[in-house]
User: Fold this.
Amino acid sequence: MIEITSKANPLIKQTKKLLQKKYRQSSYLIEGWHLFEEAVRAKAEILRVFVVADQISQLIDYEGQLILVSPEILKDLSTSPTPQGIVAEIALPNMMPPSQFKGKYLVLEDVQDPGNLGTMIRTADASGFDAVFISEKSADIYNAKTLRSMQGSHFHLPIYRGNVLTYLNQMQSSGVTCLATTLSKKSVDYRSLSDLSNFALVFGNEGQGISQEMATQADLLVHINMPGQAESLNVAVAAGILMFSFI
Assistant:
């Protein structure tokens, strides 16, 4: 075990940079015991663990690299105002998208709020979806707010970032039905659908919804009937309703 006592230590300075997206080229940081335990259970590649002295007893069986730091240093590596005593550096996963598709997929086109993104991924995990595909313009899943919202769900199911229209084309070639959510007059009430097995459920940007290209490519446009006076639902709430309706 290594002990570091100064914020000026090169490793601390290097690690702190991972709080910024532009430096997350090969690894990212997680905070708190829950996410750390999820990483261990998922056998994620944990590069190093920073922990304060009064929490070290919880790591008695951990065999990876431990770095003992002061509460002040740990707070420097955290975005939380009240850190839980542990920060871990995790290697970014290197996953190739599948060549064949069969199952239930969540596709997110330009969802930009980290809280919404994390909640939708967590809901996909809870409702038994097989993978999540997010566009390049969607929020970063390794943003601290996204990580808190996901609560470790990114360890449970694969998440792919890229051109979602290309992904959907590949899914459709494998017989997956693309359902895109929109308030268009051409959309149908989701409650009219049944016997769904292989499908991709698409949600768009919080303000703009799905793109015209997405609406054109989709096999079916769907909406949630709203008997009240609100114009729309929060995208994460809408995603929760539909994902659990289609399982």
